[in-house]
C-alpha cells in the first residue's frame, strides 16, 4: 500500500496507485501516471488533517484490489 522513500529534503511516503485516489487537500506529489507520494519534511507534517483520510482511502483501495475487504 505504501513505501518509504528517503530523500535529501525529508521523507516521501509513496502511495501505490495514488494517482487514482481523491486528494482534496492536494497532498499528493509526483507526475507518475500510477504512483504518487506525499512529501514529509518535518514531524508536524504527520498531523496534517488530510493525511489520515488519504491513507485510509489508500488502504481501502488496496484491500479491494487484493480481495481482502473486511
Structure description:
- The protein is α+β, with helices and mostly antiparallel strands.
- It has one domain (2-66).
- Helix content is 26%, strand content 27%.
- It has one helix and four strands; from the N terminus they run ββββα.
- It has one helix at residues 49-66; strands spanning 2-7, 10-15, 28-29, 36-40.
- It has a four-stranded antiparallel sheet with strand order 1-2-4-3, with no helix packed on it.
- Strand 1 and strand 2 (10-15) form a beta hairpin.
- The longest helix has 18 residues, at 49-66.
- The relative contact order is 0.23.
- The mean pLDDT is 92.
Give the helices and strands, then pairings.
Blueprint (H helix, E strand, L loop, with lengths): L1 E6 L2 E6 L12 E2 L6 E5 L8 H18 L4
Antiparallel strand pairs: 1-2, 2-4, 3-4
Question: What's the gist of this structure?
Answer:
The chain has 70 residues and is an alpha+beta fold. The chain has one helix and four strands. Helices cover 26% and strands 27% of the residues.
Amino acid at each position: 500500500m505504501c513505501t518509504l522513500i528517503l530523500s535529501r529534503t525529508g521523507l516521501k511516503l509513496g502511495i501505490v496507485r495514488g494517482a487514482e485516489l481523491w486528494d482534496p487537500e492536494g497532498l499528493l506529489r509526483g507526475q507518475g501516471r500510477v504512483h504518487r507520494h506525499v512529501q514529509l519534511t518535518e514531524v508536524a507534517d504527520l498531523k496534517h488533517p488530510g493525511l489520515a483520510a488519504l491513507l485510509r482511502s489508500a488502504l481501502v483501495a488496496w484491500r479491494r484490489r487484493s480481495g481482502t475487504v473486511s
